[in-house]
Every structure is written in structure tokens, then in C-alpha cells.
Specification:
Among the domains are: 166 residues, no CATH class; 123 residues, no CATH class. The chain has 596 residues and is α+β, with helices and mostly antiparallel strands. The longest helix has 26 residues. It contains 20 helices and ten strands. The strands form three sheets. Strands 4-3-8-9-10 form a five-stranded mixed β-sheet, with helices on one face. A three-stranded mixed β-sheet has the order 5-6-7. Strands 1-2 form a two-stranded antiparallel ribbon. InterPro entries: Transcr_Regulatory_Proteins, Zn2Cys6_DnaBD. Keywords: DNA-binding, Metal-binding, Nucleus, Transcription, Transcription regulation, Zinc. This is Zn(2)-C6 fungal-type domain-containing protein. GO terms for molecular function: DNA binding; DNA-binding transcription factor activity, RNA polymerase II-specific; zinc ion binding.
């Protein structure tokens, strides 16, 4: 059975309008404080029974692919041992996943910072009743623990969120499919990727018993999802969570087009819920006050909307026309100076969605734009089939555009300018090198590249933005100094540095800036949402080579020599992509195959 090809079909029936299910009460804060004997290093961290084989534990080698060795026991004096009292053996099957506190005890202890958790201290919020009895084997227990202790902290990227660290672990107590899916993601997230010198884009997951275990658990989770999802507000909540988990697992293992397909379907469910809450215009305040859908889940699906538009958007113009006026009153009341990164991020993402929906609605409403010189045909290799999209900066709005829409475009551009002005004081006061600065800098380069995309919609000349492109790569190189990017197999659920970098590598014809972007994507080797840094580096290097065949002695590339991606054919089974590009001037076509 091909587990990664399995899809979820979510059908919400007999949902009662206005029905609200009370939110579960906040669960207790539990602290990670393992009380373990010596054995070896990794067993102490993961509470795996050691088989005491030296120099390496066979159980670690079998499941995790590595063993980090033994520690030298630290013996206490007889007097100290007597003070500690007699040691009594406990059944490991009844040991709590996290040490229990008295019901009325305050919860003050937190995890200590590590290189992976340098945002500060993390509270672990889990139900008291989750113990090792809840898991069928040590492999289940170990994988779930790995998600809690490691994966949940890297998934948010540079921006902290309670979704992965709190909401989903809490929900896993009452919902089996969530616990099984988190177990699968925890097992998969540490499998590692293959990096080959001769094929930079080849980055498949290392096949191991742990990988097979992850696939098995994912298949079980999908079956549980189908059985669990029912109508009503609780069914909606679970349906959206199921979509998030499927997208996360499929993206993590490199099935980007399956993840994209679920992302599009899941966002449609979310939009239908929005429309049902208010058929005219759903405001931010109305959404955030809903007890049926957690605030963080709402924010995640709004970011999914951006990912779809940045990747491949199969939705018709009617959808974009509905969504381009989202929270218009909120944008009008945008503050002159932002007071927090979260506030500035909320407004930036709102403006990005509004402007992107405007561009998409305009291009899809004009038949004359659907011509071969400005469209990319994508055979997705999924049930969605073949779609046509307008790539960024290759969508040139017609000069015959009605005056009313040109005025509307100017107003959207003004929103981005207002955001940059309001953001400048907050950004300038961040301490460079800190995690907060890295997050703030990422927002800044996202805003700048989005502004270039807007401005290029009325002009195909991108060479005037070289100074912006240079700033983006200078800043991105500093962002990747953050310890988050030290992980070889880093995966974050949201868009990060890859999207701005691949846009600059695509748009900029200055050879040094372009090569720095490609080199940085290779060095980062990360996956962010649907974007794979290695794949984007390979595609952009190939296009750069074709365009630079026409470079003159001064380093100038004529406008007609610029290439655009004309055709993509995806083989999801083999995880390969046949990419065809076309020179704008001569319409000469070239093709290559990218693997991942």
C-alpha cells in the first residue's frame, strides 16, 4: 500500500448554524524532569530501555540510526545513598510521560534553553493522564516524546506559536488521530535527508526502520481521521486539525504536491466556514472570538492562503474577488507605528493576502492575459490535474485596465508603503543577532519582495530593483546565522527565507547577487511549507545558466534573453519534476529534470 498517496476526503454534514461546543478547560502545566539511571546518553533523554551493548546500544542503532554512547557513572557515597532512601523498582509501563504534580501545586519549572530553543523558556502543557500506558510500544512513546521535545519547537520557525507546542499535544489526549499523527511526525522529523555532491537537489529521506514506522503510523492516523470526522463545530475543528497534520507530514517527507492538494481542499473548508459565519464580510474580531476554531488554527489557515498563492493557485477569479477585500476596515485603522512583531506580522500577512487576491482576480478576469507568453502550465500529478497559473513578475496588467481598477491597485500599493513606514521604528530598535531580530528581519525582506512583485505588475523591468535585491541577500545571510538553521533536516510549517531568496534568484540578473542567493539556499538546506531550498536552488541555477549565455562583456543580459518557466510536469511517485523554460524574446525552449 502506498501510504503517502492516500488522501483524506472531508465531508461536513448536518452542521447546525451557530452551534458552539464549549472549549475544553485549560489543562495543567506539566514539567519535563526525567528521573533516570545512567545507561547511555540518548536513552537517558528518551527513556528507552538500554540493551547495554557496547560500544553502541543496538536498539538505538536499529530505530534511530545512531547511538551517542555511554556516560561514566557518577557514584555517590554510601552516606548519600542512605539519605536518599531505598530505591524501589517501578513498572516502566506505568511511568508518566511527564512527572505528575499535586493537583493544587503551582507550575513554575520550565525547560532550560538549548541551541534549538533559544527563544526563551518553554512551558510543557500536557494532560496529566498521558503516561507510557497510552502507547503501544517504546517506539510509539519515543516518537511522541521526540515531537514534544524537539519537533514542536522547530515547526514554528522564527515565530513562536502555541499550536504545535500546546494546542495539538493537549488535543492528542482526547483525539486518537492527533496523537497518532504527532507520533508519525515525530518519527519522521528525525530521519534525515540524503545530500549528494553530484545532485544538489537530491534530498530524499534516509530509508530506515524509523521511516517505515512513521509511514505505518501515518496510515493509521489517516484511517482514524476518516472515522473521527463528524458534522458540527467539533467536527470542523477536527477537520481543520486533520488537514494541518496531513499537510505537515506530506511536506515533511517531500510529497509537496499531495500536501498542496490537501492545503487547497482544507482552505476551502475554512473559507466555507468563514462565509457561513458572515456571508458579507468576516472580520478579524468575529473570527478570533469563535469558540469552535482555535485562534492559532485560524491564523495557520490564513497563512495557508498565502502559501497557495505563492506556489500554485488553481482557484477561479470569483474566489479572489471575494477575498481581496478581507478586513478592509482593519487595514484602514492600521496604526502609524507598530508596537510588537506579532502585530506587524498580522498586518503584513493581511496586506499580502489582499494584494495577491487583487492581482489574481484581475489577471483571471481578463481573457487576453491567458496567452502562452505569460502563463505556466502545471501538470500537478494529483487529482487536481493540469492548471494554468500566472507566475510572479510575469503577470503584466494591461494598459487598457479600467481606471477604477488602476486606482484600486494604487490603494493596495499604498497599504504596503504604510506598513513599511509603521514597521521601521520597531525594526530599527531590534538587537541584531537575536532571535527577535531574525524574525523582524524576515518580515522586512518578505515585505520588500512583495512590494517588488506589486510594482512589476505594471512593468516588466526588474533591473531597477538591484539595490533591494542586494539588501535581501545581505539580510538573509545574517538571518541564517540563527541557531535554528543549524539543523541539516530543518522543516518549518510556514514560509520563511526560501521564498524571498528564490524570488531574488529568479528576478535579479546581477550575477553575484544571484549566485549568493543560490548558495545560501544550498547552505540552508531547509524545507519551509511547500518550498524546498535545494529544489529552488537547482531550478534557479539552471535558469541562470541559460540566461547568462546571452550576457555581454559588461555583464548585461538583454530583456529578450530572460527566461520564464513555461511548463511543469510532476511525477509524485518518483518525486521528480520536468521543468521547461522559454526565452521571452525568441521563445526557444529548454527542459531539465529536478529530483528531490
Amino acid at each position: 500500500m502506498t501510504l503517502h498517496n492516500r488522501s483524506i476526503e472531508v465531508v461536513l454534514e448536518s452542521q447546525k448554524p451557530g452551534q458552539v461546543v464549549p472549549r475544553a478547560s485549560m489543562l495543567s502545566v506539566i514539567v519535563l524532569q526525567p528521573k533516570l539511571a545512567n545507561t547511555f546518553v540518548r536513552n537517558r533523554e528518551r527513556r528507552v530501555k538500554c540493551d547495554e551493548t557496547k560500544p553502541s546500544c543496538l536498539r538505538c542503532l536499529k530505530f534511530w540510526g545512531r547511538c551517542e554512547g555511554y556516560v561514566i557513572p557518577c557514584y555517590r557515597s554510601q552516606r548519600s545513598r542512605n539519605k536518599a532512601g531505598p530505591w524501589t523498582a517501578r513498572d516502566p509501563a506505568s511511568r508518566p510521560l511527564l512527572p505528575l504534580l499535586p493537583n493544587d501545586a503551582p507550575t513554575t519549572q520550565v525547560l532550560q534553553p538549548t541551541p534549538e530553543r533559544n527563544l526563551g523558556r518553554y512551558l510543557q502543557v500536557l494532560p496529566r493522564s498521558i503516561t507510557t500506558e497510552s502507547f503501544k510500544s517504546q517506539d510509539h512513546y519515543q516518537s511522541f516524546s521526540h515531537f514534544i521535545e524537539s519537533t514542536s519547537h522547530s515547526l514554528p520557525g522564527l515565530f513562536p506559536t502555541s499550536l504545535w507546542e500546546t494546542i495539538l499535544p493537549q488535543a492528542s489526549h482526547r483525539t486518537p488521530f492527533i496523537r497518532t499523527a504527532l507520533t508519525a511526525i515525530g518519527a519522521l522529523s528525525g530521519c534525515g535527508r540524503k545530500f549528494q555532491e553530484d545532485k544538489y537537489a537530491t534530498s530524499g529521506i534516509v530509508i530506515s526502520p524509523r521511516y517505515h514506522f512513521a509511514l505505518t503510523q501515518y496510515g493509521i492516523a489517516v484511517s482514524q481521521m476518516r472515522e473521527n470526522l463528524v458534522a458540527g463545530d467539533k467536527g470542523l475543528n477536527d477537520a481543520l486539525i486533520a488537514c494541518l497534520l496531513v499537510v505537515c507530514f506530506e511536506s515533511l517527507q517531500g510529497n509537496y504536491f499531495h500536501a498542496w492538494s490537501h492545503m487547497v481542499s482544507g482552505h476551502k473548508i475554512f473559507k466555507d466556514w468563514q462565509d457561513a459565519k458572515n456571508p458579507y464580510l468576516t472580520t478579524e474580531a468575529a473570527l478570533q472570538s469563535s469558540a469552535a476554531v482555535e485562534k492559532e488554527i485560524i491564523n495557520m489557515f490564513k497563512r495557508m492562503d498565502l502559501q497557495i498563492m505563492n506556489w500554485i493557485d488553481p482557484r477561479p477569479a470569483s474566489v479572489h474577488l471575494e477575498m481581496m477585500n478581507e478586513d478592509e476596515k482593519m487595514v484602514q485603522d492600521m496604526p502609524d507605528v507598530f508596537t510588537s512583531l506579532q502585530e506587524s506580522r498580522t498586518y503584513l500577512e493581511l496586506i499580502q493576502r489582499r494584494t495577491s487576491h487583487f492581482i489574481a482576480s484581475t489577471t483571471k478576469s481578463y481573457p487576453q492575459l491567458d496567452n502562452n507568453t505569460r502563463m505556466t502550465r502545471v501538470d500537478t500529478g494529483t487529482e487536481t490535474g493540469t492548471v494554468k497559473v500566472h507566475p510572479e513578475s510575469e503577470t503584466e496588467l494591461p494598459s487598457s485596465l479600467p481606471q477604477a481598477q488602476r486606482i484600486e491597485f494604487a490603494s493596495y500599493l499604498k497599504e504596503m508603503t504604510r506598513w513599511l513606514d509603521a514597521y521601521a521604528p520597531l525594526y530599527d530598535c531590534q538587537e541584531e543577532g537575536s532571535r527577535r531580530w531574525a524574525a523582524a528581519a524576515l518580515l522586512h525582506i518578505e515585505a520588500l519582495t512583495h512590494r517588488v512583485m506589486l510594482l512589476s505588475s505594471f512593468s516588466n523591468s526588474l533591473d531597477s530593483f538591484v539595490s533591494t535585491f542586494r539588501y535581501v541577500i545581505d539580510t538573509a545571510e545574517k538571518i541564517t546565522d540563527d541557531p535554528l538553521f543549524a539543523q541539516d533536516d530543518l522543516y518549518t510549517f510556514d514560509i520563511g527565507i526560501v521564498n524571498p531568496l528564490r524570488l531574488v534568484a529568479k528576478w535579479c540578473r546581477e550575477p553575484i547577487i544571484r549566485r549568493r542567493c543560490i548558495a545560501l539556499m544550498r547552505r540552508a538546506k531547509c524545507k519551509e511549507g511547500l518550498w524546498d531550498a535545494l529544489c529552488m536552488a537547482a531550478v534557479n541555477e539552471w535558469i541562470m545558466g541559460i540566461e547568462e549565455e546571452s550576457m555581454d562583456e559588461n555583464g548585461h543580459i538583454p530583456e529578450g534573453a530572460r527566461c520564464r518557466v513555461a511548463d511543469l510536469k510532476v511525477d509524485t511517485w518518483r518525486r521528480s519534476l520536468v521543468c521547461k523554460c522559454e526565452k521571452i524574446g525568441t521563445q526557444e525552449r529548454r527542459s531539465t529534470t529536478i529530483e528531490w
